[in-house]
Amino acid sequence: MNWHSGIIPLESPVKAERQAARRHYGVHPYFTRRPPNVVRRYILHYSREHDVVLDPFGGSGVTAVEAFLENRVGVQNDINPLASFIARGIADLSKGQIAAYAKSLDSLREECEKQLMSIQRAPDVTVAGFRKKVRLPPNVELPRSADVRRYYDLFSPHQLVSLAILRQAIDRIPDRYAGRAMLLAWSATLAKLNKTFLSAVGRAPSRGGSSIFSIYRYKVAKEPVELSVWPTFCERASNIIAAKREIDKTVELKRRTSGWFGRFESHARDVEDLCDDFRDAVDYIFTDPPYGRNIAYIDLSVLWNAWIGQLPDLEKRQKELIVGGDLGISESTYLTRLGDSIRACIAMLKVNRWLSVVFQHWNTLYFEEILCAAAEAGADLRAAVSQVGDPIWSMHKKKGDESVLAGELILTFHKTGKRKAIRKDAAFDLSRVLGQILSDMDGREVYGEYLFNRVIIEAWNRSAIGSLRVTKEEFTRLLRSHGWRYDQQNHYWVSETHMSPTLFGRID
Ligand SMILES: C[S@@+](CC[C@H](N)C(=O)[O-])C[C@H]1O[C@@H](n2cnc3c(N)ncnc32)[C@H](O)[C@@H]1O
């Protein structure tokens, strides 16, 4: 038996350590970032040094960067150019000299600090004069859900001009890697220097965030806070230098122990197109595809993509795996593509290698698509781990709504290369199965997500995934009819008849 086929799948959840996350992931905001320690645990378990580890829906690059820092070939892909810009930017912090980074920041300070401070105080006419002299991005239309129509409406004239001046100075930095690092810091600064930025109540004005990441739309603050440009950039640039120090240390440690041979590459393509280059070439895939309608990544990234000069064309936008967005992509298109993407992932894996897919949604059809596509493409489901009870809950969950799903299911498949015909329409009595699962709980408190995930896997194991259709309202009604109630404060379900202090499904 070879090393990869002998792997015993991970069956227990891994506690997310967001606070202890490696600092480099904090250098630039992105959507739905996975906890790095969980991703790292999966990479270390399912792959060896030198292996090719791919994340085809890579987002800001947690999988590929972790793989790279663990002496693998980390392959990042994401259809959204911003995602691969961030991932590549983080991986490239391993290049160049820290002294050159610090020197570049010093020379930017020399060149820009005073000018930016004086622009901040200047009257509008003076700023308008500057505006004619700087290079600005195209004034593109914003997503339909935005409060304002065009790109420039997102900024005050002062912000727009200041960001352009800073960007031009960065473009003139002679050291290639220091220049890229400063560009990453500048791009991260964009999130704070626009009208969607809201200060957090009771904290320093700079401690807040953009509505782009909290409610996933360009909501303009009623009273926008205008942070000073230079200190905001400087803070970001200092974070980047600290991240470089951390990455250099990791690399150096590897060099001294096992030797350093990590490699990183990045792509900005549709998953299926990627398959042309990676067929039968990958040792492990860890990925987290978009969950239906939640976030229109490309629409929301226009703030960055316009200014880094990488706005995706219509063909690419049409291939984004989402429901809705400005192009109004239908659910049936999403479903077809979801299945095709899973098939593409299996096709990219070598035989006897592993694929982990992170997913969560109330729509059982989505799970059906993933599970059937994998089996039909020649991969067996070998583990299904509920990562629930994470201390970081979604905003809606915090408001105490039992119908919101927080946490995910990590489905891990083993590629055997033997395609299977799927039977999926056996009878499935949801109430009975749920009753059995609840009785296993022995009266312990349990997270709704855990129960829902168990039901999905039961239906799959009983060849009945196609017969399982349930809305979130029906699911919660069923739980109540079995004598369980939702604890609004703690976000778990409690048996009316048992009172026990242990909580089931918590990751300790
Ligand atoms: C849930 S996010 C991944 C986040 C990532 N796990 C992280 O930790 O940063 C899903 C990603 O899939 C990307 N995506 C959507 N459609 C795609 C497609 N057809 N091909 C490749 N990537 C796609 C989105 O741009 C988004 O960044």
The gist of it:
With about 500 residues, the chain is α/β, with parallel strands linked by helices. It has helices at about 35-45, 60-70, 80-90, 100-120, 125-135, 155-170, 175-190, 210-215, 230-255, 270-280, 295-300, 300-305, 315-320, 330-350, 365-375, 395-400, 430-440, 450-460, 470-480; strands at about 50-55, 75, 195-200, 210, 265, 280-285, 350-360, 380-385, 410-415, 445, 485, 490-495, 505. The chain has a domain at about 95-235.
**SS strand fraction:** 5-15%
Give the oligomeric state of the chains in this entry, treating copies of one chain as homo and distinct chains as hetero: single chain
- Rg, alpha carbons: 24 Å
Number of distinct helices: 19
* Low-confidence runs of at least 5 consecutive residues: none
Main sheet: strand order: 5-2-1-6-7-9-8
Helix percent reads 40-55%
Ligand roster: S-adenosylmethionine
Global structural class? alpha/beta
Calculate the mean pLDDT score and round it: 92
Characterize the largest beta sheet: strand count, sense, and whether it forms a barrel: 7 strands, mixed
Number of strands: 13
Shape: globular
Distance between the termini: 34 Å
